[in-house]
Amino acid sequence: MVALLIALFLPFAASAQGIVSAADPRAAAAGVEILRKGGTATDAAIATMLALNVVEPASAGIGGGAFFVVYDAKRKTTTTVDGREAAPMAADSRWFYADGKPLGIRDAIPGGRSVGVPGTLRAMAMAHRRGGKLPWATLFEPAIRLARDGFAVTPRFNGALGRFRHGDAAIRAIFYDPDGKPRATVRNPEQADLFERVAKFGPDAFYVGPQAAKLVATVNNAARNPSKMTVGDLAAYEAKERPVLCGTYRRHKICSMGPVSSGGTAVLMILKQLERFDMAKLGKDSPVAWHLFAESSRLAYADRDMYLGDPDYVRIPLKGLLAPQYIARRSALISPTGSMATIAPGTPPGAPPRVRASTSEVAGTTSLSVADGAGNVAQVTTTIESPFGSGLSVDGTMLNNELTDFDIVPEKDGILVANRVEGGKRPRSSMAPTIVYGPDGKVRLAVGAAGGSTIIAQVAKAIIGVVDWKLSAQDAIALGLVYAPGPVALIEKGTEREAMIPALEALGEKVQAAPLGLKANAIEQVGGRWAGAADPRSEGVAMHQDGRVPEIKRFGAVPNRPSE
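Below the sequence we write its predicted structure tokens.
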């Protein structure tokens, strides 16, 4: 009888334990610390984000933006929070022009003009009000310790510092020794002081008063591309609850971030366009399956480039893009025996006149997955855009270059681009924090990724891996990627996918092997137990509330950009 009771209790005990998956072990430990103190998934996610700001500052932080997708187990509801950065009100359609000509992306990134009004702290505060339990200040404690006491620089971060070229003097003093070499141990007391102020006084300590004036002065007096931001821009910024974007794929409910992000929409389009194909029978080792994935990706990326933007500024045919009849028409363009001759956006119901713009996203960002013992789940993707953002900093914290996610050229052939720069507008994102619910209605998988527009393909691949190919989340994330935002499919260099190149070419694919800088994190529930997944390309881990860290076989040989 005792043995039977133990056997019955074990699944419950395991499921009652929370879990955190993040791109750095110290950040995951910060989230676990909060879970052990009785915090919710939202509390732990915020603490993890703050710790990532300290130990992974090239990728994300309070100088950038974030999207939350949160499942409330008690109410059985899914909500989203939009903390995307916003353009200053002075921004206009020629924001990134000089001498009457548009700047190239490399010239637009450094300096003040690429900095959007940060949204991460406001998003954290909104999420905490709705799903937090512990005091706000408690969530800052692990990050403050890391910043003040110091942390060891990881090999990945060291590589990022070795490639960092446009940083201001203040941030270089923190991360480099007097000889210009990356430090082995970093201490960031100014950041610790900033966090202590925000912990004590709330987000207003960042968005109004002297701190806001300091940020504005930093971007407006930048040596390169000075901005025209005002303290009013910061004071007026608000995080927004957006309608959660949900669809189905093979009896699973997929919930993700809607516009202003294009990520959730594009992921759903890729999946729905593939639903008529037997991906399970084809299997993960089938060149035909990956060819179909590439073709569906091309169609989704074409539509998102054409139609997606800030819904507060442009009309988005969202229902039309996901309408069954439209998906069927787009899917009919996909053949298992050959490639499309041309790739063009479609015309979904309700589509306004648009032109497809060229995209300029730079890979960066970080993502995290959290569940607590009560079954609440928080999936968050957060960013400062490209590695080290704009290269500007305030009190040891990097400022984003998110405004380069806008399409720099505002019109084509006399037609306005959906994602053009406008004052107060939020640039389109590819971030796709996603929660997948099984046929039983329970959370099956929570997944997100980093790496610019590859995020969409990474998340879609992970869902197909789990749902169709019955892989663990860990194995699904580890799969090499075929990334096809346009005619040429990029095959992830150094992975098993490279061996498929001849077979893909025989199907008419134009392919090129390349390092993709992928980085995903996930959690899943299997048999009533939480299991974690962290990208083997990264230094990330999944950590259980009891401290267990499953071993991950790393991709030591895969070339990777250092901070995506």
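DSSP finds 20 helices and 24 strands in the chain.
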